[in-house]
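Chapter summary example.
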Amino acid sequence: MSSSWKDNPSIESRGPDTTDLFEFAWRRRTRDPECIADVIFGAVHKLLSRSETYASQDAINAIRKEAEGLQRYDTWINVPCFKGDLIAKASKEGKTYHFGELLTICSIKHAESPLLACHKGRICYMGDRAKDQHGQAAIYQELSSSPSGIFDVNLTIAYGCCPGNCVTAADAIKAYVQSLLKSNSPTYVAIPHELWPQDGSWEKLGFQRKGYDRPMCRLNKALYGHPESGAHWEAHLTSAIRKCGGCPILGHPSCFMFEASKQLLTVYVDDLLMAGPIDTQESVWKALRVLVSTEDPEPLDRFLGRTHKFEHLSAPGC
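The structure predicted for these 318 residues follows.
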């Protein structure tokens, strides 16, 4: 008789929230024939095709909701221009302009559960299709970003477990578009029809849904998909952290020590993890959130796909 995943105490002890995935992993390991038909997508998004998106009002509404959120950060300047006018302007100024497109996508979050399923819209910059005014591929700055690694995350959690310390986490809200797009070239994006004003004003100006006369708007913030966005966001966040007293730790990218408060901050793109003395941590979060928009910091639970459980253990003989 083959062993069962439930016979393995190390798997069972991980809790009910992960047993399904561990059952799948165990069955794969023991080559259970029934596993051949087992394809598990846990809590993932079902991406809709273009035709499915345009056929669903819920999908269109989700995309428009995402656009409204981006526009609260002035992600693009909502003043439409004709591409021909912009090319003439670039020629007159002797500058290189970049012309790109916005990609709108919609997916169904928790598609596996009818009770939890909901439409989620996303909008990004199609960096691979951008051209300059001469029709040549856009050339970007050679920039890069350096997020922290799991080793640094583990060290931060360990520091937060020291007596008198705690560890909390927060997500940056629409992280990239909190930073300006500091590109060498003015960048304009074609606005898809689902994001046009619904009063018909752009149609009256002569803009077309397709082709050369699509409305072009100036991209103002480091929107997802732009090759430089990650670096601009990292520079923006690092600047804010340093203004609050955080000092980069040599050899540990995106890790900062606040000497005065003894707080350790580790950043993975838009996930912020802070550990240090309980009595000084709130003040550091408060100062940082003046400069960076984040969700409310909460005690560490799930971070980078891992769920963390803490237990207070006494030393033997105590």
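To summarize the output: DSSP finds nine helices and 15 strands in the chain.
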